[in-house]
Amino acid sequence: MGRDNMTFGGSITSASLAGKRHRCGRRRSVGVTNLSAPEVRRGEVVPRSASGRSAGVRGLAGALRACSLSRRRPSVRMRSWAASNALVAGGKDNSGSGLPQELARREGRLAKIKEAKAALEAEAAERAAAEAAERACAAGKDEDTIAERAAAAAARAVPKPKAQRNFTDPDSRIMKTADGSFAQCFNAQAVVDADHQVILGTDLNNCAADSQTFTPMMDKARRNTGRPPKQVLADAGYCSEANLEDAAKLTEQDGTEFLIAPGRLGHDEPVPAAPRGPIPKDLTLKQLMARKLRTKAGKAGYARRKAIVEPVFGQIATLQGKHVLLRGLDNARDECDLLTTCHNLRKLHGHLGVSGLRSLRAAT
């Protein structure tokens, strides 16, 4: 599977979409049931050599001050300590068992921190320019005004005081993991079939939020299977006004049923404990979804989510590990595709056998 479009004998009656963060990582999920159906859930993946203890840039002004090292001649004891710890800095053969070679000397450390500072400043300028351009565009300004406002915002932009950048893998981000700790992570998403635990679509990014991946993952699952699911199960991480609107459009277009946990409702969003009678016309999309999940059919359908996607992440973690070994977002994404392919081959072999695998054909 991976990025290839494949089908196998027998109908897919249900599917689940999910995500997970591995160290490097965390987990999120979106579920699809009845491809009949997918399910959605959060996830994360953590780069192994980019842990929270890795050198990073945090509070850059303070970091730069800290790197203005004293020029006095070190004492004999200090020199002896440095010699005894040479292996920690670069390894006996500079193989990188400790700090990278470019961080081993004070000049290298300072240059590396300045490079990271420049990267953070560039990211802040790019983000500010994009936000200013979006506001100007929404206000109906012409292209020249939009460009001017974007350039002005970029010139004024400064990194936040707690902005961070990891030296080992700058593409990774600090995310909260399932055990409540924080680590350098990538966020992985997967759509899982409810009947066979085959992953129908997967992706990996460096954004902790899952909501923006919902629609792209639905599109990917449909392309890979050649048909829309009958039911989609998604946890609260995927609930947003935009996703609920997209879900309503897909229901009208393909007949797909969506069960998306709405999360906490505000005091001004009451929902009856046991909905009865006609559906009120003044309910918001979030209230309608909450009401649907409190029906007997909604409760029974959504209860299947944890049995669809959770085992898949557990099997991958047990058999293949929780870490991605490659650095960089593109490399980590390719490695995630490889892990998904290995998982699918095991599942397909278990369901179809060798002869069944030979008969697989590409979805059209």
Provide the descriptors you would attach to this structure in a database record.
364 residues, alpha/beta, 2 domains, 8-stranded mixed sheet, two-stranded antiparallel ribbon, 14 strands, globular, disordered N terminus
How would you describe the shape? globular
H-E string: EEEEEEHHHHHEEEEHEHEHHHHEHE
Structural class computed from helices and strand pairing: alpha/beta
How many H/I helices?
12
Beta-strand proportion: 15-25%
**Largest sheet composition:** 8 strands, mixed
Rg, nearest Å: 25 Å
- The helicity comes to 40-55%
Low-confidence stretches: 1-15, 25-46, 51-92
Whole-number total of structural domains: 2
Q: Tally of extended strands?
A: 14
Average pLDDT number: 74
For the record, give the distance between the C-alpha atoms at the N and C termini, rounded to a whole number.
14 Å
